[in-house]
């Protein structure tokens, strides 16, 4: 974990503003040293003003957009406030971002909140406020609008720090009179975008105040805070099983938030990096080996004392100090020299012919017999995708064979049925396993960004485009697998472009005339009936027949004949991640009775909650979440109404449970059995006294 360097400890306990000043001064000094030493600087580095708009240009461009949106200076802000339920779902979706910001970043800057009249605001990539910290001086929440669920976009609120940072993709400070709407000119906003480990914009961090603070300090602070969040997201995603390298031009700055970060697998492949690393090294780092960047091999990194910084040369010219942070979980692997690229398998006798219909799933195809694959720990082996359900066994066998053919696969299934788990297993058991599996949730990407995300774009192709451009998700999947989840949500205009890519096997980025050939295995998934979507004109018929080579239906959990075995298998996998109690037969029977409307995703959540509540004790029904029993009770009441009129057809539980308890003299088990509900429900509606059974 990044810690505040020792030379900043005094400032952590005295003044967050002083901390920002010191860090910014050190960063400026460091960048000057870098220029003097001739270190590489990326094209989007702040020092390259020739390619960067001035602040005045950005504000003017924003005001022009506001006029195009039909706003005038007297317009009232339209926050498009989300309902509480939708906001709760949104916060759950961004739980990692929220917890990282609040628990791992803000404590370093907590004195800003106590010593300054300002608010810190975290918003998602669509401008919805997720949470705020601090006590503002500028009136009630209704007046300033910085409350959870409000959306701060330029279209609704005019020029503002959050909305303008989202459009430009860069940090910006909007002064009082620079706000387009007069209603917002009571404050100054400083905002900086947050990018995740995939370099996708996931949110914005903002500091807003009506006080006349040293605004340069505030602007620098919010940029440091966003860098801190990005770095912690990388650590959260990779620290368990990967080596992390931080590097800087100054040895005392290795723990600072502006150090470059590289994430390495055990072979030295760079699997992720922060923005600072790409800016400093001025090149695309994705999937390069560490020996292509620094003059060191991965075996030397593994054996170097982790507390001792190294002095290394980057790309044969530039000197950096490097610190190695080992994985939290040291994974022991036995060397297998057959994994080397130059390994040639010994010749074997011609194998006997076997009927493919009776071939067990454990038997790999000819391709996999010559390429030994170590699948990641989070990938379920093909043989373990089914546990006795003949329908699932058949579709696994069919899909596995089709993976080596130039035939697309279309998976139908309910939300949470395990479509992505299924695709990951297929990918890692195919000849494409050494290349990337790129999973795209078409419903999660804003409609206006789908095209640029999929096909990529040249620098400057549109407002908000990154200076260095983007190769796009389709090209990232070159020679690998492209998984388009929820493809029924794809906008019609994007469907047309995707069809051309699939027909011509080339991609043309937005704003470019260049074409790039692509070799992808296409797997699509949907929980919609695409044929009905075609009839309704919401999905192109020609695209439907292009993606539906092999159509398979992944059954819902409630429909599987191996439900009991599958529940036991998932529970055992979860126990490998975190120790927990075994499942009793009574608990398995209870879980099998459940209708599981949320499918595998819901099952995993219920088991995790139960294991956490049991705390290594025997897992009992009262350890499970209440909503688990709501579904069971609905089934029980329905069955009771149909087959047990003596218990009171349609009698509400709040009357039925006390009556049955009285009849059975407080016997909870007999009451639950007769009412067709769980013991938890009896406790809930029975108002039992302590000791009743």
Automatic annotation (TrEMBL):
Domain Sigma-54 factor interaction: 385-612
InterPro entries: AAA+_ATPase (IPR003593), AAA_lid_NorR (IPR058031), GAF-like_dom_sf (IPR029016), Homeodomain-like_sf (IPR009057), P-loop_NTPase (IPR027417), Sigma_54_int (IPR002078), Sigma_54_int_dom_ATP-bd_1 (IPR025662), Sigma_54_int_dom_CS (IPR025944)
CDD domains hit by this protein: AAA
Gene3D superfamilies: 1.10.8.60, 3.30.450.40, Homeodomain-like (1.10.10.60), P-loop containing nucleotide triphosphate hydrolases (3.40.50.300)
Annotated keywords: ATP-binding, Nucleotide-binding, Transcription, Transcription regulation
The protein's name: Sigma-54-dependent Fis family transcriptional regulator
Species the sequence originates in: Marinomonas primoryensis
């Amino acid at each position: 974990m990044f810690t505040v360097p020792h030379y900043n400890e005094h400032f952590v306990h005295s003044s967050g503003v002083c901390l920002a000043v010191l860090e910014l001064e050190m960063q400026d000094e460091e960048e000057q040293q870098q220029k003097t030493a001739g270190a590489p600087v990326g094209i989007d580095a702040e020092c390259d003003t020739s390619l960067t708009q001035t602040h005045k240009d950005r504000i003017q461009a924003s005001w022009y957009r506001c006029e195009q949106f039909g706003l005038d200076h007297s317009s009232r802000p339209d926050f498009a406030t989300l309902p509480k339920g939708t906001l709760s779902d949104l916060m759950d979706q961004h739980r990692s971002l929220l917890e990282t910001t609040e628990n791992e970043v803000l404590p370093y800057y907590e004195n800003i909140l106590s010593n300054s009249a300002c608010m810190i605001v975290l918003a998602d990539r669509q401008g919805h406020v997720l949470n705020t910290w601090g006590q503002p001086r500028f009136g009630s929440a209704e007046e300033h609008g910085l409350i959870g669920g409000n959306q701060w976009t330029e279209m609704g609120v005019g020029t503002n720090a959050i909305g303008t940072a989202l459009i430009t993709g860069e940090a910006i400070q909007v002064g009082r009179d620079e706000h387009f709407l007069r209603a917002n000119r009571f404050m100054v906003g400083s905002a900086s975008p947050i990018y995740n480990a995939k370099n996708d914009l996931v949110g914005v961090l903002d500091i807003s105040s009506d006080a006349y603070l040293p605004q340069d300090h505030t602007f620098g602070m919010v940029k440091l805070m966003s860098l801190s969040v990005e770095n912690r997201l990388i650590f959260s995603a990779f620290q368990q099983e990967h080596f992390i390298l931080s590097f800087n031009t100054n040895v005392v700055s290795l723990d600072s938030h502006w150090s470059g970060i590289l994430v390495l697998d055990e072979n030295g492949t760079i699997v992720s990096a922060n923005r600072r690393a790409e800016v400093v090294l001025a090149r695309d780092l994705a999937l390069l080996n560490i020996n292509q960047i620094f003059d060191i091999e991965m075996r030397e990194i593994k054996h170097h004392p982790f507390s001792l910084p190294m002095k290394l040369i980057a790309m044969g010219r530039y000197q950096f100090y490097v610190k190695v942070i080992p994985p939290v979980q040291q994974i022991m692997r036995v060397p297998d020299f057959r994994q080397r690229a130059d390994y040639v398998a010994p010749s074997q006798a011609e194998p006997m012919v076997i009927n493919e219909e009776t071939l067990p799933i454990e038997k790999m195809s000819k391709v996999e017999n010559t390429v030994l694959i170590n699948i990641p720990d989070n990938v379920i082996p093909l043989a373990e995708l089914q546990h006795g359900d003949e329908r699932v066994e058949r579709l696994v066998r069919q899909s596995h064979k089709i993976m080596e053919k130039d035939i697309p696969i279309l998976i139908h299934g309910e939300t949470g049925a395990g479509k992505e788990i299924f695709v990951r297993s297929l990918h890692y058991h195919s000849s494409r396993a050494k290349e990337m599996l790129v999973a795209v949730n078409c419903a999660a990407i804003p409609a206006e960004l789908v095209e640029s995300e999929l096909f990529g774009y040249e620098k400057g192709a549109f407002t908000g485009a990154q200076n260095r451009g983007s190769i796009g998700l389709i090209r990232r999947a070159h020679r690998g697998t492209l998984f388009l989840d929820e493809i029924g949500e794809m906008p019609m205009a994007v469907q047309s472009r995707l069809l051309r890519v699939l027909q011509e096997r080339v991609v043309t980025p937005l704003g470019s005339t260049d074409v790039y050939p692509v070799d992808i295995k296409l797997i699509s998934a949907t929980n919609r009936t695409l044929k009905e979507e075609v009839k309704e004109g919401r999905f192109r018929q020609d695209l439907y027949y292009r993606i539906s080579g092999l159509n398979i239906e992944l059954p819902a959990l409630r429909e599987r004949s191996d439900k009991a075995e599958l529940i036991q298998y998932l529970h055992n996998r979860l126990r490998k991640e975190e120790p927990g109690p075994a499942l009793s037969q009574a608990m398995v029977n209870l879980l099998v009775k459940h209708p599981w409307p949320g499918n595998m995703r819901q099952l995993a959540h219920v088991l995790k909650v139960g294991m956490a509540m049991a705390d290594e004790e025997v897992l009992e029904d009262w350890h499970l979440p209440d909503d688990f029993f709501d579904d069971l009770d609905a089934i029980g009441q329905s069955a009771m109404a149909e087959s047990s009129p003596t218990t009171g057809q349609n009698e509400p539980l709040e009357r039925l449970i006390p009556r049955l308890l009285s009849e059975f003299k407080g016997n909870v088990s007999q009451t639950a059995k007769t009412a067709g509900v769980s013991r938890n429900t009896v406790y809930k509606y029975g108002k039992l006294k302590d000791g009743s059974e």
